[in-house]
UniProtKB/TrEMBL annotation, chains A, B:
PROSITE patterns: FAD_PCMH (PS51387). Belongs to the FAD-binding oxidoreductase/transferase type 4 family. Its cofactor is FAD. This is FAD-binding PCMH-type domain-containing protein. The keyword Protein transport does not apply. It comes from Pseudofrankia asymbiotica. SUPFAM superfamilies: FAD-binding/transporter-associated domain-like, FAD-linked oxidases, C-terminal domain. Keywords: FAD, Flavoprotein, Oxidoreductase. InterPro entries: FAD-bd_oxidored_4_C, FAD-bd_PCMH, FAD-bd_PCMH-like_sf, FAD-bd_PCMH_sub1, FAD-bd_PCMH_sub2, FAD-linked_Oxase-like_C, FAD-oxidored/transferase_4, Oxid_FAD_bind_N. It comes from the Bacteria. Residues 31-208 form the FAD-binding PCMH-type domain. The keyword Transmembrane helix does not apply.
């Protein structure tokens, strides 16, 4: 089989030596495995040929993009071959009238954001300098602007994908409206590499706001914060982001980084709002009232305020090797989640430190835990069980992967999981695509 | 079987007499058939029981909502049983914080729009007083505001659905972010009743604009109109709608209705823009420049301007029993489509009158034809072939149904159609759901 793979992609792109190591461990370092080979095709035809060979040999395959996933879904865990899409990195010309661009799977999200001075890419995630189009589609990446632009699924205007038998499906002309049968690109978004390999996507770009404004508001607690965020969504049409963090995470950052206190008065809860243009300033000021606040309109000042939120993923890591959970609940249960989650974790691990932050308007809370006791699943049991009782999801953004596989039944019924397995077989009858994740 | 159905829904809701007639013909009158029975369940459990009976008896079923479809996809064409969802008409309380509501399949879109004074439903289509949630999901309805809020697919925050074997899948808690396996609700949107029967949906509502403004601009031609629409999308963040029609349709309406000329000077092409608040007026005025224009901010005046666009679907009917086609193309090909479509139809039917109108920013043109010669498929051959050559879709909004089944290969490859059939079998192994539409 090695010989056949070399015939397709060339000797130097079938890695079987120590260079496979970086492809075999996820960036958290928690998930690692062995792979017989890392194969790096250059184009769609090569992807199709590699998959056809694997299907014939019944060789399981893990597709891999920027390898920035957080749930162990993109690395070989049971001896899978790694199909790296990194060399599919061509970015087409921006179609300014359509506000669209065609990108190969290995293009990073940051390159999309930089593709045109007047246009931006709607999805912004912390890992955007490494995360790629293919991986972001496979995980339906969300991030800081879902409120305004939706997740990765909502950016797809066309897709080219390869089924596990090597069949290429190409539908890339960039139609905004197209009701001609099943919208399988929507299904590929979030399918964690189990249905097909994305090789190209036609993606929506969005007008770049001319005068965005960022405000950081201090609030006495999370209930007040949630009320204000809900009002902001309703009353500020130009709202792009509504993010939160608390004094717990901020205090850690102030101790361990060069950040200085953002407001003159410390408060318990912090709400960061970004609006797309200065025209929304009035509504913003009315909303903020007498709250302690910092407002920024220049790029450097905006970045300075954003840093308080964007550096929160680092915080728990200053205390212990962190456990990064990512959940969402209905709006009506958000305050309960955000205020009680610390106690829920303390009940199973009194020494744990819990840092929460995230996307308040989406019901999404990142629960980062610096465990005091061994991370043997008890933290997940506690957090996911609590979230399920609130009608929530055990994965808002990150996916199920390896980290959450055992808890999927908390979010999906047996009937849903059985349907998932049938859908999967419809796309991948050979059963070779990312067999370690999602039901089969 | 009749006895068993009566046991489930009651004698008065298994129709087998002349009352089946209204359910057996679509509202265009073009598609009709015979049905052994119309069954009208009252709740999800009854839907499940009816489907289980049909699966056992291998009885094909057509799910039917408001029966406002335009492609013959919701009526029995080969002796199917009609499963009417009209009695599932309960609308839950509006969750104002989440800006969501749960609606049963038979609730009309207008009831969603009227559910709360501060909130609106994002999808507005001409048939909104009759069209229902279930049908609008099954067809992924688009309409007048896709530009701003997306189609029906983008409104779904949860769904309850019944598979053909009677299995109920319920996922209704209203999560904005939920990456826990395959997003099958996205796939149900646009599936034309072939995958599952939607019984309830949790739907996004949107803030109702406080001071919307409508402007009708007159332009010398469709190329200028398209340029201006593209600029509007880029430069007016509060843009909700960008619609167009031409003097051809307007002249027919002025002759056959009580409408009077909208502008002091007649022009060839008309662009209707709606912006969500008066704050966008300045950008609108800059855009309009010296063009002939009418601007409306009061509700009655807005409705008066909208009427010119909203009455266009009637226009071709004043000339002959119309053929209503609905296509979309990439932005770069829109002008070519809009300016050449008349000649394309004339080439196969010199006596035809062609009226175009629609959603310019979505690439979507409604091509309404008052044929001069027999409607034997030649008009579709010409229009759909032309659209396919432009990289377009033979169905932007209406779906494939019966009307376009023969031309689906123009928009979807054999490999895609084969995938459709496999997806379909994964949802409906018994093969009883709406067998006359989409590939099996």
């Amino acid at each position: 089989m090695r010989r056949s793979l070399v015939d397709v992609v060339g000797e130097e792109h079938v890695l079987t030596d120590s260079r496979t190591a970086g492809y075999s461990v996820d960036w958290t370092g928690r998930y690692r495995g062995l792979t017989p080979a890392v194969v790096r095709p250059r184009d769609t035809a090569q992807v199709a040929a590699v998959l056809a060979l694997c299907a014939t040999a019944a060789m399981p395959v893990v597709p891999q993009g920027g390898n920035t996933g957080l749930v162990g879904g993109g690395v070989p865990r049971s001896g899978e071959l790694v199909l790296s899409l990194e060399r599919l990195d061509r970015l087409g010309p921006v179609d300014r009238d359509a506000t669209q661009v065609t990108a190969e799977a290995g293009v990073t999200l940051q390159r999309l954001a930089d593709a045109h001075p007047d246009l931006d890419f709607g999805v912004a995630i912390a890992s955007r300098h490494s995360a790629t189009v293919g991986g972001a589609i496979a995980t339906n990446a969300g991030g800081l602007r879902v409120l305004r632009y939706g997740p990765m699924r909502a950016q797809i205007r066309g897709i080219e994908t390869v089924l596990s038998d090597g069949t290429v499906l190409s539908h890339l002309s960039g139609l905004v409206k197209d009701n001609t049968g099943y919208d399988y690109p929507s299904l590929l978004a979030g399918s964690e590499g189990t249905l097909a390999v994305v090789t190209k996507a036609r993606l929506r770009l969005v007008p770049r706001p001319r005068d965005p404004v960022v405000a950081l508001l201090g609030l006495p607690g999370l209930a007040d914060l949630h009320s204000l965020a809900v009002r902001a969504v309703r009353e500020i049409p130009g709202l792009v982001s509504a993010e939160f963090f608390t004094s717990t995470g901020l205090d850690v950052l102030l101790r361990h980084t060069d950040l200085t206190p953002p407001l003159s008065v410390p408060t318990d809860a912090y709400l960061l709002l970004e609006v797309s243009d200065a025209g929304a300033m009035e509504a913003l000021a009315e909303l903020a009232g007498d709250l302690p606040a910092a407002v920024a309109s220049g790029a450097a000042e905006r970045a300075r305020l954003w840093a308080y939120r964007e550096r929160h993923p680092e915080a728990a890591g200053f205390l212990a090797p962190p456990l990064k959970l990512d959940v969402s609940v209905p709006a009506a249960r958000w305050v309960e989640l955000a205020t009680r989650i610390g106690d829920v974790v303390a009940a199973v691990d009194t020494g744990a430190r819990v840092i929460t932050f995230g996307h308040v308007a989406d019901g999404n809370v990142h629960v980062n835990i610096a465990p005091g006791a061994e991370a043997d699943g008890r933290h997940q049991d506690a957090v996911f069980g609590f979230v399920a009782d609130l009608g929530g999801s055990i994965s808002a953004e990150h996916g199920i992967g390896a980290l959450k596989a055992a808890w999927l039944p908390l979010s999906r019924t047996a009937a849903e999981r059985a349907l998932f397995a049938r859908i999967r077989a419809a796309f991948d009858p050979a059963g070779i695509l990312n067999p370690s994740v999602l039901p089969r």
